[in-house]
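lol forgot to send this yesterday, sorry. struct tokens for the thing we talked abt
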């Protein structure tokens, strides 16, 4: 099935001075084009407000506004006119999710003569795809890649499947239940399949209270912590398995690294987002200990938000070239 032809990305515009730059191929450059967003998704009109500078915006503390804004973004920039998530599930910030995919495309290019591989021959595994299924949707539209999205939550997968069917992408993107809730790759990868990439937005927090504290800190930084207002407990929503796990992101990624060794020959590049920069030294050390032949740390920025992902491979350049020829 050929990839859908999305709207052409807008001309690149510089982000406001002092703000972190998105990846050059990211469609979300510059300020949001509200006239285009409203044309693509008129329902957004009821949520548009004016910020203190008199510019159109939305209230990012309103979950209904954020969901509708995402629908408008996906319709305007990607030609995806059907997207929804059940109430209480994670509503992703789309520009940052797109940056992770573009960074991974660059990692693939480093072992492919500088050329980003595109099309359905490239297979990608999304660990914890969630109800939003955002990485497979964006990755298929931008690069034509085939995806498998996995999750431990059957309800999340059912919601994701509805989005895929509504957009005619259920043949390009497969959803798979990880029935072993304490495992990541084990029991999920089949012995005869291979992936060019794996990606993951892990549960960052170690507990519900830590997740709630993080949301309150974000509201405070945004100047929205008004005692007279009832704010959502969780920034961008999220079920417990999307936001926290025992040991937080460090324990989760360490387990991912351990399990990745068992599938070293099946995957060209493993990867995972890392929210807390303080975890990086331990993760780099563990990757070296388990025998990763190549390690990449890719830093990303969206406005004042700093993030990064780690990518690793158990194959050297010659072995990766042989892997591609099979």
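and heres what i got for the seq, position by position
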């Amino acid at each position: 099935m050929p990839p859908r032809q999305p709207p052409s990305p807008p001309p690149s515009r510089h982000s406001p001075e002092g703000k972190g730059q998105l990846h050059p191929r990211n469609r979300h450059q510059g300020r949001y084009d509200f006239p285009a967003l409203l044309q693509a998704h008129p329902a957004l009109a009821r949520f548009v407000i004016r910020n203190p500078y008199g510019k159109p915006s939305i209230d990012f503390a309103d979950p209904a506004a954020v969901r509708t804004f995402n629908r408008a973004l996906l319709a305007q920039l990607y030609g995806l006119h059907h997207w929804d998530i059940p109430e209480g599930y994670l509503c992703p910030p789309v520009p940052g999710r797109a940056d992770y995919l573009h960074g991974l495309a660059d990692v693939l290019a480093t072992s492919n003569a500088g050329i980003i591989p595109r099309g359905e021959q490239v297979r990608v595994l999304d660990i914890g795809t969630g109800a939003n299924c955002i990485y497979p949707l964006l990755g298929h539209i931008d690069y034509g890649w085939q995806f498998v999205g996995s999750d431990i939550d059957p309800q999340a997968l059912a919601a994701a499947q509805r989005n895929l069917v509504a957009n005619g992408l259920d043949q390009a993107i497969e959803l798979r239940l990880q029935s072993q809730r304490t495992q990541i790759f084990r029991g999920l990868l089949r012995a005869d399949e291979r992936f060019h990439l794996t990606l993951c937005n892990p549960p960052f927090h170690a507990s519900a209270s830590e997740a709630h504290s993080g949301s309150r800190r974000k509201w405070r930084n945004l100047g929205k912590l008004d005692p007279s207002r009832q704010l959502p407990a969780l920034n961008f929503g999220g079920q417990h398995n999307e936001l926290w796990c025992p040991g937080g992101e460090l324990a989760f990624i360490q387990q991912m690294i351990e399990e990745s060794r068992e599938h070293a020959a099946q995957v060209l590049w493993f990867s995972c987002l890392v929210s807390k920069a303080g975890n990086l030294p331990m993760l780099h050390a563990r990757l070296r200990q388990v025998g990763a032949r190549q390690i990449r740390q890719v830093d990303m920025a969206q406005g004042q938000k700093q993030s990064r992902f780690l990518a690793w491979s158990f194959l050297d350049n010659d072995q990766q070239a042989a892997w591609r020829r099979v």
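The chain has one domain: 90-325. anyway ping me if u want another try
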